[in-house]
Amino acid sequence: MKIYFETYGCTLNRADTDIMKGLLSESGHEIVEDENKADVLIINTCTVKGATENKIIERLKTLDGKRVVVAGCLVINRKRIRFVLPGAPLVWPSAVSKINDAVDAAVQGLPAEFNEPKRKESGIRAYTAPIFRVPISEGCTGNCHFCQTKLARPVLASYSEKLIAEWISKGVEKGAKEIQLTSMDTGAYGIDRGTNLIDLLKCINGIDGDFLVRIGMINPEHAFKMKEDIAEIMEKGKLFRFMHIPVQSGSEKVCGEMGRKHTVKDFTDTVSYFRSRFPDITISTDIIVGYPTETEENFQETVKLLETVKPDVVNLSKFTPRAGTKAAEMKQLASGTTKERSRKASETVKKICSENNRKYTGKTMDVLVTEKGKGRTGNYKQVALKGDSEPGKWIKVKIKDANHGSLFSSAPEDQG
User: Fold this and answer.
1) Cα dihedral sign for 350, 354, 357, 359?
2) Whole-prediction pTM value?
3) Which of 413, 386, 390 is CA-nearest to residue 401?
4) CA 362 – CA 390 distance, rounded (Å)
5) Residues in Cβ contact with 84 at an 8 Å cutoff, skipping those fewer than 6 apart
6) DSSP assignment, residue 381?
7) CA torsion, points 403, 405, 407, 411, in degrees to nearest 10?
8) When you count CB atoms within 10 A of the terminal residue's CB, does the N or C end of the chain come out lower?
9) Cα–Cα distance, 230 to 119 (Å, whole number)
């Protein structure tokens, strides 16, 4: 059977796709890149934003009459999926191990639903290079009032250190150079198993091979507690100098009303500590504007936080209510207010990130080529490359320009 995948959303979703591809290939199915040549289409979905959900639903409408399996977090809104594709099997994130059964159901035209109370471990998966996505857990220890993903992945389930190490070792053997550890919150890793992220990082740091690890999103309450240990491991050379720490709001009041388990001060203290240890570290954060309880004064606190901390990467979102969450039950702000705040915050973000990146202009840097025309520095700055450098190789380039999202290298003949 020929299987086509289409994946939306975060790195964790893409890692789940790799697991499903491996399980299907192991069973004799063929993964194809052209949907027109496929017998079954698997759409791995995302539910973080309303706009993303609408985009996926519109896409599903075009697949009526085809054999389709719908997987991922959007199955939490299965009534809407069923309205569009009443016969499609549904696969919850905890049940990716059932993907072969789901494909069989699609072939038979059975609208089955696959769910498990807790994800099962499996050593089978697809391997990719030079970037290799490694899920370390699903679920989290938080209960943010705006998050629908928590409803789709309600239980913290961490993979064993042994399995993660086996995945990484084999991935490195197959040419992986950038290992992306991914989870809803990497800081929650191991709490359900009596271990933690630090123990996992120490284990990974002992794996032989030429590779670097990118730690995925870690919430401030965990990052604050682990900062010294993470920094110590980072100094040993196996980690990119990069931290993704989502603060969501610059207002202590709004953070509390969002159900966040951290303070804004936890975030700023953590960022200050990492920058004191690694002055060139890349700091990424997430910001939501237009939360139902956010006043103009609260919004200005967020802008001030951005201007003070000057993060290198900001994932900026306009709040959209997600069904089943506490925030969806609150009185919503006028859409125009949210849109205007998003516009102002976006301008601030672009200015800050552009200023941060332009500091690298004229510098010669080592870059890991991760795909054609793109690469990453040791502090995880994205570099747009000229020339045909081979993915998986480290090269030296001279930075000639930058914008808010990327550094730009000189032409090959001008590279240092």
Assistant:
1) negative
2) 0.95
3) 386
4) 23
5) 57, 60, 61, 64
6) -
7) -80
8) C
9) 27
Q: Alpha-carbon distance 357 to 123, whole Å?
A: 40
- 318-337: pLDDT as tens digits: 999 999 999 999 999 999 99
Q: 364-414 — its CATH code? A: 2.40.50
pLDDT digits (tens, 9 = 90+) for 79-132: 999 999 999 999 999 999 999 999 999 999 999 999 999 898 988 999 999 999
Nearest CA-CA partner of 127 in 286, 4, 19: 19
**Please, where in the chain does CATH 3.40.50.12160 lie?**
2-114
Evaluate whether 376 touches 383 at the Cβ level (below 8 Å).
yes
Structure tokens at 341: 């705040």
d(CA 317, CA 286) in angstroms, rounded, equals 8
Q: What superfamily would CATH give domain 131-357? A: tm_1862 like domain (3.80.30.20)
In the chain, ranges of CATH 2.40.50 domains? 364-414
Helix (H) or strand (E) holding 163: helix 161-173
- The encoded tokens of residue 207 equal 């794996």
